[in-house]
Every structure is written in structure tokens, then in C-alpha cells.
Write a structure and sequence with these properties.
By secondary structure, the protein is mostly helical. It contains 13 helices and no strands. Helix 7 packs antiparallel against helix 10. The radius of gyration is 21 Å and the shape is globular.
Length: 291
């Protein structure tokens, strides 16, 4: 029993606290930066429409949604400067775009990731109606990426980098599991009615008229099966390389059903923290050499 306990403890420590050895970490950070870039580009288009006294979501509406005057809502912690200076909306989104580009090319080290994170969160804090399906997952991923860039070549930092990568992996798996369980608890996903309604509403790339019922049922069941497959591949090293293709298929179904490019990009970028790096792709950066 003592030997088994020691072995479990050793595996636990090795999983969380070994120095980072994954060569795909720079690629993961670059793809998360691409997803962040898409989000900020979308905000740059919408920020001026949502913010300001003449915007769709003016100051009084923002304060009301934050719980102004309502006890226990935390409205007193409105730290985002966009509440007082809504004209900062566009400059901040431009700063987020620049920081995201820095993530993609591997510049600014942890600073670019941190800037992108704070700009993303302050925009969402001020305009929560702009938050799409995957942006809470993206915000966590960008924050974890602050440790996926080398500050200095020390064993401690490589351990922290591994911890950040593990947190990103666990965060993605919990996100996928919660998505699966919520669908399994909803009968409309079993019958295909949920997908059929999305198609009728014109959410995705399928024609709103003329799509047969069997197609909606097939897509609904595919969403469920693919999520099960992704979770199984992530937890089973022998079939883990298959997980990348299952994720691509899942994102393709997401595009067909709801047409959300940003959500698909966030899911795929976050999932790359789990799958092994594809053969033939070299990560010849300072980060890979330092690890």
C-alpha cells in the first residue's frame, strides 16, 4: 500500500510540477493569440457602436446591468476604465490586437499575454453583452500563456510553465465535459430539435429551408459523439493523436450549425495544449531551445 501511495504521489508531482518538455507550447500560445486577435478585431468593429452616451449600451445601462444600487452585486468593483471613459473602447481594442500579434510572433514575452488578458477582461467587464460562447475560455487561456513564454532559463520557470500548460488542458477538458453534460441533460439534443431550430433560425451555414430532419438529427448526435471522443482521446495516451482530428471535426460541425468562427478558433486553439505536435512541424524558437 505504501508503494502504491508513493507511486501515485510521484505521478501527481510529475504531472503538475515537472519542467515543461512539451515542444508544442509555443504553437499553443501562437494559436491562442490568433483566437484573441479575432476577438479584438470583432470588438474593434463593435466597440464604438456599444460604448458612449449614444451607444447601444450607454453608461446608465452598463451601471444598471452591473447592479448599481443593488446590494451584493459587486457593482462597487467597477475597475474597468471604460465605465468612466467609454471613448477608450477603440484604442483599447487596438492595443489588444497589437498584444495578440505579439503572442502570435512570440514577442514581448509574458507582457504581451498580460496586456491582452487585461484588455480582454476590462472590455467584458464593461460590456458583458459582447461576451460570446468561448471568450471566458479564451480569457483563461491568455492568462495561462503568460507562463508559456521564457522570462529566464531557470528550472523554476520551466516548472511554472508546465503548471500553466496543465491548467490550460484541465480548463479545456472541464469546458468540454460541461458542454457535453448540458447537452445530454437537454432532450432537444437527443431528438435533434435543438439543431433543427438553429438551422431554421439561420445561425450556421446550412440553408434554413430544405434541410431534412435526418440531417439535423445526424449533426446533433455528431456533436455529442465527438465530444465524448475528444474527452476519451485526451484521457487515453494511445489514441491521443486522434483527438486533434476529432476536434477539427467538432469545430466544423459548430461552424455548420451556428457559424461562429471565433468560438471554433478558441476551442481549437485551447485543445492544442493536449494533442502531440504534428510530425514535420518544427518549433525552432528560443522557447523550444530553452526547454
Amino acid at each position: 500500500m505504501k508503494t502504491d501511495t508513493a507511486g501515485i504521489w510521484e505521478c501527481w508531482n510529475r504531472f503538475w510540477f515537472q519542467p515543461l518538455l512539451a515542444p508544442s507550447a509555443p504553437m499553443t500560445r501562437a494559436l491562442i493569440g490568433c483566437a484573441s486577435l479575432l476577438v479584438f478585431a470583432n470588438h474593434a468593429v463593435l466597440a464604438s457602436q456599444w460604448l458612449g452616451d449614444s451607444g447601444w449600451f450607454d453608461g446608465s445601462a452598463a451601471l444598471a446591468l452591473a447592479g448599481q444600487g443593488v446590494e451584493g452585486t459587486g457593482a462597487e468593483y467597477r475597475w474597468s476604465p471604460l465605465y468612466s471613459y467609454p471613448w477608450l473602447g477603440l484604442p483599447l481594442t487596438v492595443l489588444g490586437i497589437i498584444a495578440s500579434l505579439a503572442m502570435v510572433v512570440g514577442r514581448w514575452s509574458w507582457l504581451g499575454c498580460l496586456i491582452a488578458y487585461f484588455v480582454l477582461v476590462m472590455i467584458h467587464h464593461r460590456i458583458p453583452l459582447l461576451i460570446n460562447k468561448g471568450e471566458p475560455l479564451l480569457a483563461a487561456g491568455v492568462l495561462y500563456c503568460t507562463l508559456l513564454t521564457p522570462i529566464q532559463e531557470t528550472s523554476l520557470f520551466r516548472v511554472l510553465s508546465n503548471l500553466a500548460l496543465r491548467m490550460l488542458q484541465i480548463h479545456f477538458l472541464i469546458w468540454m465535459a460541461m458542454s457535453l453534460f448540458s447537452m445530454l441533460a437537454n432532450e432537444t439534443w437527443w431528438t435533434g430539435e435543438a439543431v433543427r431550430q438553429l438551422i431554421v433560425d439561420g445561425q450556421g451555414f446550412l440553408p434554413s429551408r430544405g434541410t431534412p430532419l435526418w440531417c439535423a438529427e445526424f449533426l446533433a448526435h455528431s456533436v455529442l459523439v465527438l465530444q465524448v471522443g475528444i474527452l476519451a482521446a485526451a484521457l487515453n495516451p494511445s489514441i491521443r493523436p486522434l483527438g486533434r482530428w476529432l476536434t477539427i471535426a467538432f469545430c466544423a460541425v459548430i461552424l455548420l450549425v451556428i457559424g461562429d468562427w471565433i468560438y471554433a478558433a478558441i476551442l481549437f486553439a485551447s485543445s492544442t495544449s493536449i494533442w502531440p505536435i504534428p510530425p514535420g512541424i518544427a518549433v525552432s524558437t528560443h522557447e523550444s531551445r530553452s526547454r
